[in-house]
Amino acid sequence: MTHHAITVLGHDRPGIIAEATRILADLGMNLEDSTMTLLRGHFAMTLVGSGEVEAAAVEEALAPLTAAGDLTVSVREVPEEQVSARVGTSWVLTVHGGDRPGIVSTIVGQVAELGGNITDLTTRLAGELYLLVAEVDLPAGVDVESLRTALRAAGDDLGVGVSLHEVEADDL
Amino acid sequence: MSTPAELVGWDVARLGVDGRVLEVVRAPAPVLSTPGEAVDPRAADTVQLAADLVATMRVSPGCVGLAAPQVGVGARVFCVDVSEHPKTRDHHGTFVLCNAEVLESSRNDRSREGCMSVPDFTGEVKRASRLVVRGELPGTGEQVLVTANAFEARALQHEMDHCAGLLFLDRVAGAHAVHARKTYL
């Protein structure tokens, strides 16, 4: 079984997902994890799928998607990753404020400095308002209060508000 | 028909049978996606099921409720006990209801839920924080009302969903409202 990382990017229109996934299904590929969204109106699909087929063959099969010249497709073989249990705690980081360059790099730099790992991150720009929401794993022993203080200070410099709260999920 | 009385002071000992710890089934088991059958609350197998649900809930760390489909039985029976949970305001202790239905619900709030039958995901789900439920007690078949709020209301709705063949995954607020469960050592 081979795993492929596949991206489809470009001009949005109804039916891209239907066409792409039909082609992959016809190749006998199993879509495992995927995200598909619109980024500033552009269609963006990223997925990892598995099957008994070479990357070049997948790319060739997806070629009709690119015929109109407004979508690009990439297919790359990737090794299977082992997801291991983590030691630490899970947090949601939210940043919002006036748009300006450097918000993401400055904020996530603070997280990286402490060995925090970002497992999901979305940013959106709407008018002047810039929004970042991230899920962050912090290693055991991290002083969360000093991270919060550092994030707020960085936020103040950027003119944005930063909040960090622990993920709570109630088992029912 | 007179209005049923509010549930007070139920105890699993009233069932008069020992509960057995059953295996909790996980999605995609079909029983979790199939509406449960109405039961006869006085039937011996219903009473045994009620005791088994409580016994299984009690040995499962952090478990505040369990529905029959979660132990592989497609029946409208569930137990709840939120008395030890930090988010609980008012509660009714441990109880089991059969054939429960929602009479009133209001004041939705949104919170992230997990489920023993869906161990790899959590999801944001909007649920009523004020709830009135009518159900039947196993053993006697007596109809009771449960007027619940806050976390107990959420737990009741989660378990009643199980009895209707629904998982929290069926109620998540959007494509970004389901999260991979972080497994920590």
Automatic annotation (TrEMBL), chain A:
<dbReference type="Pfam" id="PF13740">
    <property type="entry name" value="ACT_6"/>
</dbReference>
<dbReference type="InterPro" id="IPR002912">
    <property type="entry name" value="ACT_dom"/>
</dbReference>
<dbReference type="InterPro" id="IPR045865">
    <property type="entry name" value="ACT-like_dom_sf"/>
</dbReference>
<dbReference type="InterPro" id="IPR050990">
    <property type="entry name" value="UPF0237/GcvR_regulator"/>
</dbReference>
<feature type="domain" description="ACT">
    <location>
        <begin position="5"/>
        <end position="80"/>
    </location>
</feature>
<protein>
    <submittedName>
        <fullName>ACT domain-containing protein</fullName>
    </submittedName>
</protein>
<feature type="domain" description="ACT">
    <location>
        <begin position="92"/>
        <end position="165"/>
    </location>
</feature>
Automatic annotation (TrEMBL), chain B:
<feature type="binding site">
    <location>
        <position position="158"/>
    </location>
    <ligand>
        <name>Fe cation</name>
    </ligand>
</feature>
<feature type="active site">
    <location>
        <position position="159"/>
    </location>
</feature>
<feature type="binding site">
    <location>
        <position position="115"/>
    </location>
    <ligand>
        <name>Fe cation</name>
    </ligand>
</feature>
<keyword id="KW-0648">Protein biosynthesis</keyword>
<feature type="binding site">
    <location>
        <position position="162"/>
    </location>
    <ligand>
        <name>Fe cation</name>
    </ligand>
</feature>
<dbReference type="GO" id="GO:0042586">
    <property type="term" value="F:peptide deformylase activity"/>
</dbReference>
<dbReference type="GO" id="GO:0046872">
    <property type="term" value="F:metal ion binding"/>
</dbReference>
<dbReference type="Pfam" id="PF01327">
    <property type="entry name" value="Pep_deformylase"/>
</dbReference>
<comment type="function">
    <text>Removes the formyl group from the N-terminal Met of newly synthesized proteins. Requires at least a dipeptide for an efficient rate of reaction. N-terminal L-methionine is a prerequisite for activity but the enzyme has broad specificity at other positions.</text>
</comment>
<dbReference type="InterPro" id="IPR023635">
    <property type="entry name" value="Peptide_deformylase"/>
</dbReference>
<dbReference type="GO" id="GO:0006412">
    <property type="term" value="P:translation"/>
</dbReference>
<keyword id="KW-0378">Hydrolase</keyword>
<dbReference type="InterPro" id="IPR036821">
    <property type="entry name" value="Peptide_deformylase_sf"/>
</dbReference>
<keyword id="KW-0479">Metal-binding</keyword>
<comment type="similarity">
    <text>Belongs to the polypeptide deformylase family.</text>
</comment>
<keyword id="KW-0408">Iron</keyword>
<protein>
    <recommendedName>
        <fullName>Peptide deformylase</fullName>
        <ecNumber>3.5.1.88</ecNumber>
    </recommendedName>
</protein>
